[in-house]
Fold this sequence. Notes:
alpha/beta
Amino acid sequence: MKVLILEDEEIIARHLEGLVKQYPQPAEVLSVIPSVQDALHWLGIHPSPDLILMDIHLEDDLVFALFDSIDLTVPVIFTTAYDEYVIQAFKVNSIDYLLKPIQYEALAAALDKYYTLERHFTRTSPADMASLLAQLKVKEYKDRFMVTLGNKIQSIPTNDIAYFFLEEKMTFLVTDKGARLPINYSLDLLSQVLDPHDFFRVNRQYYIAHRAIRAAHHYSTGKLKLELQPLPKEMVFVSGDRLTPFKEWLGK
C-alpha cells in the first residue's frame, strides 16, 4: 500500500507515518506534503497513491480546495482536529474521519476498512460496486429532534433551534423563542447530523445556528464574544482553535 500524507505539522506527520508503519500490512509513505499547492504539484507529476491521509487545515488553504482543482479519486482518511467538516468530508472520497490526537487503534480500524473495500472493488461486479458506494453516501441532515419532558413528547424542527449547549454533562437545545429543552445527543454526535452550513461548534459547550448570531465582538487578542438571540445564561466565546474556521463559516 502506497500512502501519501497531507499534514502541515511535522511532528503530527511523523506520528502518522509511524502509525502507518505499525500496521500489519506492508505500507510505504511516499511523501509528506504541507500545503494544497504542493499536493497539486506532487499529484500532477507522480502516479496516484493507493490512499491519502489528509488533514483539513493545511498551510495555504482548506484541503477541499484540492478536490475543487482536480478530479481526485484516491480513497481518503481525514485526520483533523476539527469536527465541523465531517459532512463535507464524506461528500468526497472519504472512507473515515479521525479526530486528533490520532490513536493507533482508530487508524488501524480505518485501514481495515480501506482493505475491505479494496477487496470488494477488485473482485465484484459493477452492480456490487454501486451497492458499496451507496453504503458510503452521506446521510441526510437531521430536520427535527424529539424531546421528552415527563410524559410529554415534543418534536422540535431544526429550523426552530437557535443553539445547543452542554451543561453538567447534559445537552440542551434552545429554540428561537427561548425554550430550553434536554436532548439525548452529545455535541460530537450533533456534528454528524447538523448541516454545517447552518450550525457551527464555537467551543466545547456551544453549537450555534448562523441566524442566532446577532454580532461578534473582539473581546481580547484572538478571542471573539458572541451576541446571541435568544440570550444565553452566560457569555459565549469562540475558542481560539476555532476562530479561523468560524470566520470562514460566518462569511459563507
